[in-house]
Structure formats: structure tokens, C-alpha cells
Amino acid sequence: MYPSVPVIGRRVDFDVVTSTSHVIPKDTIVSVHIFGLHHNPKFYPDPEKFDPDRFLPQNMKGRHPFSYIPFSAGPRNCIGQRFAMVEMKTAIASVVRNFRLLPIDKPSDLQFMAHLILKANKGVHIKFEKRQ
User: Fold this and answer.
1) Which residues contribute to the annotated binding site for heme?
2) Contact, 115 vs 109, CB < 8 A?
3) Is it the case that residue 104 has pLDDT exceeding 80?
């Protein structure tokens, strides 16, 4: 729900008429607010709640295919997506195998800064408890 890049820009290749009949002329640069999209209750009820089940196939039926785009989408998406996913799964598996992760901060207390990447203003504090 927290993309590393919160906003992306794209140039429109041809005139586009939106569902509200607005025309976006060719060559206009539009911004896609990925963070806002991922927190839209239309797609994700209670978006601040930690709910991995929201991504189960049965819970994604009828949801717009581009409602979750942490690496952007289409021909100009993140070139490092596959590498990032493999690296992330490997690192998370190693950490979770050896530690229980416990939140110190409440998600509602976190404040974010959106620069080139999205990051927590004062970091995210987690307690690592060694597994037996």
C-alpha cells in the first residue's frame, strides 16, 4: 500500500476522453498519484488496515487491474521490478525465519515524506524478537 515511488508522470500519446467527458489532449503530461490510488476506499475498503487477504484472487475479482501498481504498469514500468521482487522475498523470508517482527509505532502515527521516493518522516520502528 506504500509504493516506493508515490507519483509518476506520463505523456498522453493521443487525445483521451475521460469517463466524465473531459478531454486530455495529446502530449499532455499527467501525474498518477500511486499512493492515493493504493489508499482509495473504492478499491480498498479500510486502506490503512494491514490486510494481506485483500490480494487473494477471490478478493480481487472485479477490481480494476491497475488499482495496485507499486512498480507502475505497462511498457514503461519499473525495469527492476522482477529483481526487486526476488530480492524482497529472499530478504523477508530470511528475516521472518529468524525473528518475530512486532510494530512499535501505530500505522496511524506514521507521517510520510514524498520526494523521489516515499519514506517515513522519522523511520519505521520495529521490534525484532529472536525465534526459538
Assistant:
1) 78
2) no
3) yes
**Is 1 domain-assigned?**
no
Q: Which residue has the cell 493521443?
A: 14
Number of domains in the chain: 1
Residue 56 is assigned to a structural domain of this protein: yes
Phi/psi of residue 107, each to 5°? Answer: -55, -35
Read off the pLDDT of each residue in 42-59 and give the average, rounded to a whole number: 92
Residues of the binding site: 78
The residue range of the domain holding 22 is 7-126
Q: What residues pair up with 103 in beta bridges, in sequence order?
A: 126
Which DSSP state fits 45? S
* Residue at 119 is within a domain: yes
- Cβ pair 96, 129 in contact under 8 A: no
- The model's pTM: 0.69
Strands (E), the chain: 7-11, 16-17, 23-24, 29-33, 99-103, 112-114, 118-120, 126-130
